[in-house]
Structure formats: structure tokens, C-alpha cells
Design brief:
Elements lengths: L2 E8 L2 E5 L2 E2 L4 H14 L5 H13 L6 E5 L9 E3 L3 E4 L4 H4 L4 E7 L4 E4 L11 E4 L4 E5 L9 E3 H6 L10
Parallel strand pairs: 1-7, 6-8
Antiparallel strand pairs: 1-2, 1-3, 2-4, 5-6, 7-10, 8-9, 10-11
Helix pairs in contact: 1-2
Amino acid sequence: MTRGTGYLITNDSIYYHDEFNGDMYRDGHGENFILMLDKTIPENFQKMLQDWNANNHNYNEFETYKKQLISPDFMDYIKVGEVITINFNINYFTHWFSDWIFIKNGLDKELHIITRSDIDGVAGQTIIIKPDETHAFYFGSAIDPEDVYTAEDVRINPVVKKDGNS
């Protein structure tokens, strides 16, 4: 089962939800999920996820969350300044845990993501997510080009799914 979690980061909050288990990779549910998240605004985040859950996973107990961006919960790996920087190298599996994480930048400025270093010590990359852009990351990595994709990638070049549809 390939897990996935969506995050919407705004000027003052982080919205996220319980993890979805099953087919959250790009040619599974990933492309549809990133496109839905890309269209979402904070006021609709919970409804979008309830609809997604009802149509794709149907969990009886499913929660969404909202936490303040400037919070002790995030201070070790999120730096707030001229830009917001999230460092996936700091306790990645404690904070992010899903195979695929989907992040929408709902800020009025760039969001910088420092991807995880590889096991050979090759440094992670800084991925810049512009306002209103949405990116997907595989275990917080960008080593393989298929480890990161955007909603715009999906609109321009959708993957042909295993059933032959795009």
C-alpha cells in the first residue's frame, strides 16, 4: 500500500489530514489528488478531503488538522523568515511519514523545501514552490527525477495509468 498525505501551508497555518493508505503514487491516485489539492483553498480543505475520502478510501474515522505555522511542533524543521523553509533532513519519518506527501503553497511568498540527502551523503536539493503551486515528494527525496512532480506536470503530461487511461 502506497500512503499519501496532503498539506496546505498558509501564512499562518499548516493544514493536513490523516494518511490515506493505498495507491497514492502518481499513476494510482496521486495525479487526481494533486490536482484536487492544487484547486483547494483553506476554507475548502476539510470538505475536499472528506469528498476524496468518500470517493476513494471510505474511512469511517478520518480527521483533518490545522496547526499554527509558528509553533513548537514545527520549530526544529520549519524556519520562518523572508521565506518559509522546510527541511526534510530533520526527523523526516517523525514528521512526514507517508510515502508521498503533497504540498500546496498557500503563502504569499515562496516556500523552500530542502529534500532529503541520500544514503551516500549526497546533499538534498532546495525545491522552490511558488505561491499557489503544488508539489508531490516521494519520501522527501528529489534524487530520482520521478521522486518529485507538480500539479502543472500532471496537467501538461499526465501519466498513462496501468488501465491504459490518463
